[in-house]
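Customer escalation, tier 2.

The customer says the design service returned an amino acid string that "doesn't look like it belongs to this structure." They asked us to rerun it and document both sides in this ticket. The original structure tokens are below, unchanged.
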């Protein structure tokens, strides 16, 4: 009986675990090496659009994740005073893209993905290095503290500062600072009632969204020099930046403790890689195409990568051909959106807000237009979401 092919996944985040689950379903023996002591992710929540939910259908998780959707009713884009520039609804998004937008804690998604794997497939506290990328005549080799592992396929899913990417493409400049930092919290906010929204100010963004479990996910961004930190604590910094913005922002800040607030600078890959593979190694997610979070597509594109990689696991050039043009276009769009919603010119902001309001009155809300060509993506293999996908597109 032939031995199953072996895949080693370096990185136990969303992209790495999705790739591992997809390869496992195809009969591969999979080992995930995560350098952290647990799979609990750094981050608060993640928004999954119909494109990544269709990808999760391929590994049998789509419907389970859709059931966690929390967004209902009106939502949209506001100014710091609270004026609505653009409004839409969950139903409008589902009708336009053939499925819902789902917001859930990152830890919940990681837990569901890990449950798709055998208990011994994931090793935590397991730093790894790429020793040899391999080729058609020899396996790839991955170094660990316990010795080297040979693999028919190595998946580099080690994030924006990917060591695997540097090993494959040592001449590439890597990720650059995007010009802004982000803050995120997931907390209960007693008595808060609000419509899901994102608010654009002068060089600043705030978003507030309800979660299925009753908590609130809030995020913020501001133009600031790299490697900055608040002189006291990050909750105090948010109060200085957003404390006088519209409800429910003051209520969220009042409910948050300093330890609840995560702060991270944003980096992206400005110069696309020449390929997403070399030898027997393929890159997924931020390791391949880190992008600003302004379209909410970083994790979504990582999930797409993983499912397409499993489909093309015997032909890595085909994987690059399928993913590099699409992710490059999405990443560029995310950079352009960041320039739009974080602009600092008062005159430019006035023109922007007027245009957003006018466009939204004339047709679909701006954020729905922004997902055209992104959220309607479908994976190269079935099954699709039977109830969400029109028959003609299956």
């Amino acid at each position: 009986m032939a031995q199953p092919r072996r895949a080693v996944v370096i990185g136990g985040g969303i992209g790495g675990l999705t790739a591992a689950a997809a390869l496992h379903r195809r009969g591969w023996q999979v080992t995930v090496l995560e350098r952290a002591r647990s799979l609990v992710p750094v981050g608060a929540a993640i928004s999954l659009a119909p494109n990544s939910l269709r990808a999760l259908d391929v590994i049998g998780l789509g419907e389970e994740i859709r059931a966690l959707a929390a967004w209902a009713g009106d939502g949209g884009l506001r100014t710091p005073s609270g004026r609505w520039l653009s409004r839409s609804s969950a139903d409008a998004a589902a009708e336009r893209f053939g499925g819902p937008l789902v917001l859930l804690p990152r830890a919940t998604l990681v837990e569901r993905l890990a449950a798709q794997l055998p208990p011994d497939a994931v090793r935590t506290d397991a730093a790894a290095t790429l020793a040899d990328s391999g080729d058609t005549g020899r396996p790839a080799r991955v170094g660990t503290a316990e010795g080297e592992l040979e693999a028919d396929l190595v998946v580099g899913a080690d994030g924006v500062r990917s060591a695997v990417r540097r090993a494959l493409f040592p001449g590439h400049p890597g990720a650059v600072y995007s010009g802004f930092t982000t803050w995120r919290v997931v907390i209960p906010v007693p008595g808060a009632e609000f419509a899901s929204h994102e608010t654009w100010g002068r060089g600043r963004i705030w978003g507030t969204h309800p979660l299925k479990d009753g908590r609130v996910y809030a995020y913020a961004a501001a133009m600031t020099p790299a490697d900055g930190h608040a002189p006291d604590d990050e909750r105090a910094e948010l109060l200085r930046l957003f404390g006088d913005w519209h409800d429910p922002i003051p209520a969220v800040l009042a409910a948050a403790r300093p330890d609840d607030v995560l702060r991270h600078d944003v980096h992206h890959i400005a110069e696309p890689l020449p390929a997403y593979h070399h030898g027997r190694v393929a890159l997924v997610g931020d390791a391949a195409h880190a992008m600003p979070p302004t379209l909410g597509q970083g994790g979504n594109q990582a999930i797409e990568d993983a499912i397409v990689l499993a489909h093309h696991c015997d032909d890595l050039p085909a994987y690059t051909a399928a993913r590099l043009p699409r992710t490059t276009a999405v990443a560029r769009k995310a950079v352009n959106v960041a320039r739009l919603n974080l602009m600092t010119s008062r005159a430019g902001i006035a023109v922007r807000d007027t245009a957003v309001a006018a466009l939204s009155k004339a047709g679909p809300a701006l954020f729905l237009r922004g997902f055209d060509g992104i959220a309607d993506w479908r994976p190269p293999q079935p099954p699709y979401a039977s109830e969400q996908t029109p028959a003609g597109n299956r």
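Tier 2 assessment: The sequence is consistent with the input. Confidence is low (pLDDT under 50) at residues 385-394. The chain has 13 helices and 18 strands. Sent an explanation to the customer and offered a walkthrough call.
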